[in-house]
Amino acid sequence: MAGTVTVPSASVPSTPLLKDELDIVIPTIRNLDFLEMWRPFFQPYHLIIVQDGDPTKTIRVPEGFDYELYNRNDINRILGPKASCISFKDSACRCFGYMVSKKKYVFTIDDDCFVAKDPSGKDINALEQHIKNLLSPSTPFFFNTLYDPYREGADFVRGYPFSLREGAKTAVSHGLWLNIPDYDAPTQMVKPRERNSRYVDAVMTVPKGTLFPMCGMNLAFDRDLIGPAMYFGLMGDGQPIGRYDDMWAGWCMKVICDHLSLGVKTGLPYIWHSKASNPFVNLKKEYKGIFWQEDIIPFFQNATIPKECNTVQKCYLSLAEQVREKLGKIDPYFVKLADAMVTWIEAWDELNPSTAAVENGKAK
Amino acid sequence: MAGTVTVPSASVPSTPLLKDELDIVIPTIRNLDFLEMWRPFFQPYHLIIVQDGDPTKTIRVPEGFDYELYNRNDINRILGPKASCISFKDSACRCFGYMVSKKKYVFTIDDDCFVAKDPSGKDINALEQHIKNLLSPSTPFFFNTLYDPYREGADFVRGYPFSLREGAKTAVSHGLWLNIPDYDAPTQMVKPRERNSRYVDAVMTVPKGTLFPMCGMNLAFDRDLIGPAMYFGLMGDGQPIGRYDDMWAGWCMKVICDHLSLGVKTGLPYIWHSKASNPFVNLKKEYKGIFWQEDIIPFFQNATIPKECNTVQKCYLSLAEQVREKLGKIDPYFVKLADAMVTWIEAWDELNPSTAAVENGKAK
């Protein structure tokens, strides 16, 4: 019964999917040699490189890639005082790339992520799988036990209401990691040798009302549908916390997707995560987050967005006020974060005037 | 960080797990030759066979199995007038077996289900996997992207609140099917040749607040935790509907598990479902359900159980009244079903007096 999205199944499609509608955003502090391995899959696409740290350093990008690169000086020049909402010395800076992109879709990947192999030994074209995920609907309102019903060879099972089989638009595709799993510092310390070798051949929708830990390592989204919610917060230099940038974005994004009836998928594609970051350094970055998340999670689980918020921007500003009011009591950091959330939306609308005008239903 | 349940990994454990604490319930109308294939896995366990249809027919059970068998005459004799709540000429009759079991765990399987093979070609011990699922906690309150965090080689990912890592008790383990997928009649008709050949190597918790279609073909549960909610309704002979028995049980059970903070898992183990039932016959049984489920699903999505209902029985009786009041408006069938739900609980408590007394907190 389900409409299957027909996409060429070869690893390297002859015409790359969405070639002119997708940007690849990469935050980095080093030469991008990792792109060599991705060349067959990424070369047709445009890259947005967000250089973190010392802006005088030169980042080498392998020959033949089409890219634009922004360092901290560029960010300050383009955003002026609003640059304060973009983190420094933390991969949270990547969200600047989402803001300056002019494309409908964004794929973001870390520079320590390599091409993984599927169980048959074939290289996995992660980008192609993300695109498949984004172009086919999600099923946030009811759980399908055979996983993605739009996938070839699968469908909705008996008992799945027919009125829900059209699904919802997919806003986010969250991919996973073979080799080094995305663990927090305490788990890294307790299980230093754990490697993820289980290839789970599934894509699933995270149900409406359910929060999940969104990792920014291997992530794609529809910028038109959810872009302004993909703010990675204030982390790193001058902030009391790190390594919660993608989590923060994921919680805000999920609450807004639930409100706007948009879908979020997780599962395939896998990338090969090459090396674990230092658990001692990570613990220092994370430890406040480890306490705070015990309050943050119930906050987001109970957050409701007023009915009249019908754009991502309006939803996001509503969330910012709730963060200020409710999480501000935990620590002054959250008041600063709420301010930055507002600044982020102002900056987004400034750089994306047409979308802002259309989405907010008024001329700018 | 997660405690892993250590269970012998051989297909045929030397000491069968929970040998004296688990019954296998099989509804049938034919000789149970299918048990031959399951012999290495099932023979150590006690079987409860619920014979449907003509009670004068003799059902042959292969040698060497330890079993008790109930036909319609037995059901009528044991339950008296309360036998009206047990369906006839429908596999819904299986729930009589849950009621007469004296064990903590129940595994139920259809007689057209055979041993499946994992991708390495090894026979899957479905029962062993169900037991692993039931003996390790669930994670209904927050989604873990690497699936079951209690499984060896997996854990909770970064961003998963530490206060939730103990998980919840697991009440239900829902297994899947290779070969013939569990499709409704319309999907069977549209895709007569579709076979499920995708082995997804995952077990996951169905999140709190999310409903799913529970299939009774390959299912295990903790009778002490959730038994009285596993009523398969009024189906088959004399009823306007069939093939919604397991769905009905699943929806009631899930709402109650959410209320009582119990977990429900789906995924592994797979069984090999040998043959598709006749889609034309199925359509006749299902067609009212196809309409009704459009109202039933929102009903269960919005159902709330009063806080003071602290046993499965009390929760179930509360649901029965809501069914009568709200679904009774759709069709008088639901009033009859609500009556049967009450009768079921009365019969359950009669056959399980100690549990009833303990769970309801009063002497009987």
From TrEMBL, chains A, B:
One GO term in the molecular function aspect is: UDP-arabinopyranose mutase activity
Give Gene Ontology CC terms: cytosol; Golgi apparatus; plant-type cell wall
Principal location listed in the UniProt entry: Golgi
In the record, which residues are listed under signal peptide? Answer: none
The UniProt keywords, alphabetically, are: Cell wall biogenesis/degradation, Glycoprotein, Golgi apparatus, Isomerase
Look up the EC number in the record and give it: 5.4.99.30
Keyword Transcription recorded: no
Write down the PANTHER family for this protein, in alphabetical order: UDP-ARABINOPYRANOSE MUTASE 1 (PTHR31682:SF46), UDP-ARABINOSE MUTASE (PTHR31682)
Q: What is the protein name stated in its UniProt record?
A: UDP-arabinopyranose mutase
What is the organism of origin for this protein?
A: Oryza meridionalis
Q: What is the lineage of its organism?
A: Eukaryota, Viridiplantae, Streptophyta, Embryophyta, Tracheophyta
